[in-house]
Each structure stands twice: as structure tokens, then as C-alpha cells.
Amino acid sequence: MSLSRLSILGVGLLGGSIGLAARSRISGCQVVGYGHRTETLDRALQLGAIDVATLDPAEAVSGTELVILATPVGRFERVLNQIAPHLSSAAVVTDVGSTKRSVVQLAEQALPNPARFVGSHPMAGGERAGIDAARADLFDRAMCMTTPMPQTDPTALELVESFWRILGMRVIRLSPEDHDRHLADASHLPHLLASMLVAMQSSDSLELAGKGFADMTRIAAGDGGLWRDILLDNADNVRDSIARLRAQLDCVEALLRPDQADALRTYLDTAAATRRALSSPGRES
Prior knowledge:
- This protein has about 280 residues and is an alpha/beta fold.
- About 50% of the residues lie in helices and about 10% in strands.
């Protein structure tokens, strides 16, 4: 693709990885990184994630073709308002946020041309945060969801989706509402569950925890502030997910009786088959 200037607002794990991937895959593209900490920007320069660093959001987006919001979701409103007066009429803005309804609404309110905003959610990351965890292959074979609106400019949508594909991702489209509802089940509630499983353990139990416990609770090591913002932003859908989980817990509790042994086995086998299908050959991660 032809992209001469890319602005990344927030150069942590995702922003830094975007910069590394873009610099290695898009010839002639200058990557500008914005942040509020000089040491983080200096480290991003040292690692080769960005070409230019700035503490000024207006300078970061000046003359750019594609702007990517990669700060925590809770900072999007402030950043959008800061950059809005300084965007060129041709600039396209996207994001990497884990919720989409509020982001789309903020863009519609703040940006001079909301049709040039395309919501994105690259499903990539890890429990480690910060620029030192960034890597150029983070997005390889992962999925990215875009959430265009009826008024979205088709050329802006094509630019954003082409960008994620060049970084190695497969792209699917969802409405912002469908995105937030499905991600409550598939991402946001699992993070809460991992945290709750850790929180319920006694110190004696933790001393006996093995690989299974470590695998199941790995994501609980993620950044608490980032996940707080995600969970609060999608609280209505997460509450619905919790209600369905509560029904599942009640179902399983009723199966923990000798006369329900066959039903319990069926329940577990069904879940096992569904989980194995997620890792079957030919299915991308």
C-alpha cells in the first residue's frame, strides 16, 4: 500500500508493535509516535518502533494520512479533542480499542469529518504491557474487527482494512453494537473470570497451583487500569454475560451428584469438543 506518514498516538505494546510492523512492511512510510512520557518515546525510537517522537498531539497528526489511537480507551475523548483541529481533510483516523460503541460516538462528536473515522479492534496483545513488550510479528495471523457505520467513507474503510491486512491480520466487519456484545462474552468476561479465579485462592492453594491454573489465569496479569476502562465502558454487556455465566454455574452445580454422572460427562465432553475445534488444523489463531 502507499502510505507516506503514519501517526501512532500511544506507543505501548500495541502502538509500538504497529510501528515495528509498519516500518518493516510499508516502504517509505514515516512513523510518528506521540506519548506523554519522554522516556517511553525515547525507548520507542531506540527500538525502531517510530521514526519521529513528539509530546505534542497537534504535531503528531500534522500532514498525516492515517492516525491510530493506541492509548487506553479512557483517554480517547481527550486525545480526539486535542487532535481534531489539526487533522487534514484527507486524514483517516482509526483506533485499537477493545470497545467500539463509545469510541464511534466520541469520534462522531469530536472529529470534523467523522466519515473518515473507522473503528478497529486488532485481537492481539498479551499480559505484558509497555513498549518493551512490542514486537513486529504481534499481528501475524490474528483477527482484526472493523466497525464501519453507514456514513463511513468507503475509501477510509479500504485504507484501514488494507493496513491491518498488510500487518498480517485477517479482517472481519461488525457493527459497534455486535462487537461489544460478542466481546463481552469472548474477551471481557474471560478476563474477569481469570481475575476472580486468582482472587478466590488461599495462599495454601496458590502454592499447589500447577500449569493448568497458570494457563487459565494468564490474562489476569494484564494492566488493571486498562481493563477497568474496558469493563466499565462495556458494563451493560458484561452484566448480561455474567448473568448467563451464573446460569451455567447453577447448571453445573446441579450436575454434581452421582445420579447426574452421565449428564456431567456429556456437558464436559461437549465443551471439550468445542474447545478442540478452536485449535483444529486450518483454523487461524
